[in-house]
């Protein structure tokens, strides 16, 4: 193999997220090349081992350490290298030393933590973040147990049962079939606070990952063209959850009048929103009812339509039509836009998860155009984020 081989290995070992500050597209390109490299280098037996044995066992070990309180206690004491004995003492529950040793061995091998010697480990940035209360990474681990895992595992048998018809019915979804409560995803979240919390925690980390929409959509023109004298708001964020997107808008436009930004969502979801500003009003509202706020400059919906198939999505869109002021109000749909070829793992993976969870889908530009036009709007422009994953589709009344 020789010197050039060693050079390549050294170079590959040197890359880290921090090297790509401001170069997100290059980071994603390299990540995608690295994934293809793994795909080419792995034997078929390694591949099936990883799918069948490594990934599920890694998740189990992560979750058990979470249940034992190890991630939180390790972060709380400031991280640092620890022996297995020291980590066992940090645990909030009594645990056999050799049991913990076996869990940590796998997590060291998969670089969730770093093995530094025999029975010795250092945390990584990721493992520290699990125990860091300022992140909701731990809720992401719980969301897998509460929602994603059973839902994905059930999909093959559900599709066999439904004769491989594309799931479109939110009332009889794979998710309803997967859990004993037989509730839809959002209803099951409402039935148990820990299910809602893990969903919201996952959403919070997801919203940190997604590009801030005012960074790739021209909100400055939106604000410049607004007339707020009638008291109508500037932006109504429909299905806005805990307000991450409205807060990003507010960060770019801090001088907007009090109450000019509105978040609508289910009452129980809004009850957990902690917004410390008089600029934003919270309004419980189901988007399956007619929009009660008339003449807003913008009606913004992010990650809403990917939860619903064509018919319910059409209903949500049509419920906004009577509230829009022609020639003034903008409909802003922010969601994944799948390219006709070369979809990323993010886009294609999100699409299948939406199928499994909600009988829903991500959309191509063509399916977006059909849906939005069918509801009575015309599309002005699609503004893509720098990754090319999501777009803001700007439309107005046709
Ligand atoms: C995938 S989340 C997107 C949240 C947020 N827009 C974002 O992108 O971070 C979908 C949101 O729709 C809300 N939702 C579900 N059913 C709803 C309904 N009938 N009316 C209003 N909001 C609803 C959920 O509570 C959740 O906050």
Tell me what you see in this structure.
- This protein has 398 residues and is α/β, with parallel strands linked by helices.
- The chain is built from 17 helices and 11 strands.
- The protein folds into 3 domains: 15-130, Winged helix-like DNA-binding domain superfamily/Winged helix DNA-binding domain (Arc Repressor Mutant, subunit A); 142-208, no CATH class; 212-397, Rossmann fold.
- The strands form 2 sheets. Strands 4, 5, 6, 7, 8, 9, 10 and 11 form an 8-stranded mixed beta sheet that branches. It has a 3-stranded antiparallel beta sheet with strand order 1-3-2.
- α3 crosses α6 (97-109), α5 (84-90) packs across α6 and α10 crosses α11.
- It is globular and about 70 Å long.
- It starts with a helix and ends with a strand.
- The structure holds S-adenosylmethionine.
Please describe the topology of this protein:
Layout lengths: L1 H13 L9 H18 L2 H24 L2 H7 L5 E2 H7 L6 H13 L3 E5 L2 E4 L1 H6 L6 H25 L12 H5 L6 H7 L1 H17 L9 H6 L10 E4 L5 H9 L8 E5 L1 H4 L9 E5 L13 E5 L7 H9 L11 E9 L6 H14 L4 E2 H10 L2 E8 L5 E8 L1
Parallel strand pairs: 4-5, 4-7, 5-6, 7-8, 8-9
Antiparallel strand pairs: 1-3, 2-3, 8-11, 10-11
S-adenosylmethionine binds next to helix 11.
Number of helical stretches of at least 4 residues: 17
* Contiguous runs where pLDDT drops below 50 for at least 5 residues: none
Gyration radius, rounded: 23 Å
Number of strands: 11
Enumerate the distinct ligands.
S-adenosylmethionine
Distance separating the two termini: 64 Å
CATH superfamily descriptor of the largest domain: Vaccinia Virus protein VP39
CATH classification, class level of the largest domain: Alpha Beta
Question: Would you list the SSEs in sequence order as H and E?
Answer: HHHHEHHEEHHHHHHEHEHEEHEHEHEE
Number of domains: 3
Task: Tell me the CATH topology of the largest domain.
Answer: Rossmann fold
The portion of residues forming beta strands comes to: 5-15%
Described by its quaternary structure, the protein is: single chain
Overall form: globular
Mean pLDDT over all positions: 96
The SS-based structural class is alpha/beta
> How can the largest sheet be summarized?
8 strands, mixed
